[in-house]
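4.2 Preliminary Data

To establish feasibility before requesting continued support, the project team ran the inverse folding procedure on a target of 393 residues. The structure was first converted into the token representation described in Section 3, and no sequence information of any kind was made available to the design step. The complete token record follows.
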């Protein structure tokens, strides 16, 4: 059918219509991307290179969203999801796609996003690093419990999808599901209970409730198998320079801080982190005077930070990224090298643009030396990326 555009050019009359589409690729957020008469249409649960019948569910000025009704000609990369609840559970949005295709799409997504923000950007783009495990990799999860149902939220809803297993979670946790369900029943609460289960550093399984007063253990890398490689790559990219100071921003409990302290034995090491529990955990492990850990918002810290031209900065912000203020402060400080670890390609691309713009304005342009995507969260659209920046000499 043809698009009925109104005077304003909007596609509003299309709302609710059924149309056939060709899915070109996948987008950040996980949906398939198609075009209908030039307008982008996002189709969750689609796969690249397939023909689908959809119902238009949202019409905006520049794009539309649609619900997948039928796969008319399946993608060669489409498969039956190994998990029986994958089509309804809010956890994995790419289980219906082969791992090879998931990796191809992530590698492409990171590159396209960086180029979209800055089409002339030059850098070495290394092949995506595959996760040692595609399933059974998560060591921290947040299941829910209500009305005797134990599981995860359904996609786009707060209904609970009942589970007895979760294929992306380590077995040490999944074998405790029935025990945790009984424990949650014992709370005799009619309210929704948000739980957290994780494998501690010592290897034991822990669980508890997440409440308004206690938001759980805080951030930790959920895929320890791939995290090793990520940390090692950051160390390798940092090179062999004799940095006087290594600054780890958004340091968590020291996932990067301690390995950097171990490698750069002559450097002062500073970690900056906002979550008190993580700061306390890191501080309890510090044994050397040259290591410091600050409980602080990174932006506030940057107002008083002293960073020299021979220093190294590592930053690993949450999905929202850093901020223009932080990137401008880093551009002004012009450390010798910056290693930026990101879990969201859009905030990475935006932050990089800020630092390029500000370093240019301030007269010490920085360049992007290399970038590599890491498969940290198989079966989902999430992707980790590491980038190295240097002063353009
Ligand atoms: C992606 S995690 C990285 C943590 C650590 N680098 C790791 O690999 O485990 C981001 C961290 O930034 C912290 N964070 C979030 N916003 C912050 C802010 N404004 N200032 C300082 N830390 C912040 C979070 O608590 C979290 O520990």
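Position-by-position output of the design step:
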């Amino acid at each position: 059918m043809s698009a009925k555009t109104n005077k304003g050019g909007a596609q509003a009359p299309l709302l609710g219509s059924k149309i056939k589409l060709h899915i070109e690729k996948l987008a950040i957020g996980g949906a398939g991307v198609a075009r209908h008469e030039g307008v982008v249409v996002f189709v969750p649960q689609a796969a690249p290179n397939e023909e689908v019948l959809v119902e238009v569910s949202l019409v905006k000025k520049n794009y539309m969203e649609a619900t997948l009704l039928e796969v008319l000609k399946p993608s060669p990369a489409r498969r039956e999801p190994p998990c029986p609840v994958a089509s309804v559970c809010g956890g994995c949005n790419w289980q219906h796609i082969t791992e090879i295709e998931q990796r191809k799409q992530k590698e492409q997504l990171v590159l396209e996003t960086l180029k979209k923000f800055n089409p002339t950007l030059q850098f070495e783009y290394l092949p995506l690093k595959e996760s040692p495990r595609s399933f059974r990799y998560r060591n921290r999860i947040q299941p829910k419990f209500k009305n005797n149902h134990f599981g995860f939220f359904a996609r786009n809803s707060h209904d609970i999808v009942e589970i007895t297993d979760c294929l992306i979670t380590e077995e040490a946790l999944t074998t405790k599901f029935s025990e945790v369900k009984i424990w949650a029943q014992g709370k005799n609460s009619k309210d929704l209970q948000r739980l957290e289960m994780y494998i501690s550093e010592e290897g034991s399984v822990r669980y508890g409730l997440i409440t308004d007063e206690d938001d759980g253990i805080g951030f930790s890398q959920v895929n320890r198998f791939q995290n090793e490689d990520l940390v090692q790559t950051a160390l390798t990219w940092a090179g062999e320079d004799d940095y006087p100071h290594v600054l780890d921003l958004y340091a968590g409990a020291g996932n990067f801080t301690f390995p950097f302290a171990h490698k750069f034995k002559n450097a002062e090491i500073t970690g900056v982190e906002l979550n008190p529990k993580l700061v306390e955990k890191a501080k309890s492990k510090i044994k050397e005077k040259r290591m410091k850990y600050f409980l602080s918002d990174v932006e506030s810290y940057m107002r008083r930070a002293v960073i020299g031209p021979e220093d190294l900065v590592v930053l690993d912000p949450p999905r929202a990224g850093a901020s223009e203020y932080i990137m401008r402060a880093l551009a002004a400080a012009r450390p010798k090298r910056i290693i930026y670890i990101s879990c969201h390609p859009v905030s990475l691309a935006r932050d990089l643009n800020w630092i390029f713009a500000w370093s240019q304005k301030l007269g010490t342009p920085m360049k992007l030396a290399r970038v590599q995507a890491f498969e940290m969260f198989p079966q989902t659209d999430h992707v980790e990326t590491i980038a190295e920046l240097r002063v353009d000499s």
